[in-house]
Amino acid sequence: MRRFLNLTRFFKINWFAFLWLNFLSGKIKRGGKGFLVPCWGAQFKISQGASINVAAEFTVNHFETSRRVAGASFVMAKNARIEVSGNFSMLYGADVKIFEGGQLILGSGYTNAGIQIRCSKSIRIGNNVAIAKDVVIMDSDAHEINYEGYEMSKEVCIEDNVWIGTRAMILKGVTIGEGSMVAAGAVVIKDVPPHSLVAGVPAKVIKSNIGFKI
Fold first, then answer.
1. CB under 8 Å to 156, separation ≥6 — which residues?
2. How far apart, in whole angstroms, are the C-alpha atoms of residue 4 and residue 10?
3. pTM beyond 0.85, yes or no
4. 120-214 adopts what CATH topology?
């Protein structure tokens, strides 16, 4: 518990929600040093059979100033699941919905303010991933389109060491390869090769064999 006792951080955490979610609700499955850390303004609606499994620290609605800001919303339908294997932080304004039977798998890293995630099937985010403001990640079209071979939902996979720029959109069926970058405002509708920079609508590779530091 000592890692929570930094005074600046201490007053940002909703301790009532922290105790309820981690020790009393039965919805959080903790392993190792895992904790769900809800800051003020984070709201959770977790349906029957849904769970959040944390093996490390998962901080939700973190804000950098001393005053409270826009809240975060997590809605998990029946049998939905979140798995967190590394330290992961979502800044304020997160809007996450996981539909029935969907799974959101998180490694380590962070999302900046205003992330929107819609998970119908499976979204996987790897380790050391940086996601900027107002990014949208969806694994489904939400409405069915009628043509032969159509699939409404397909898994999204964001591999390790990926950087996604402000207001990018990651759509269904996409794998973003290790070490890649997605430029601000890009709409990604097909796979991104490892160590590539993609930009545009729809996103295309504009540089290869890149590297960066987060």
1. 122, 123, 124, 137, 138, 139, 170, 171, 172, 173, 174, 175
2. 6
3. yes
4. UDP N-Acetylglucosamine Acyltransferase; domain 1 (2.160.10)
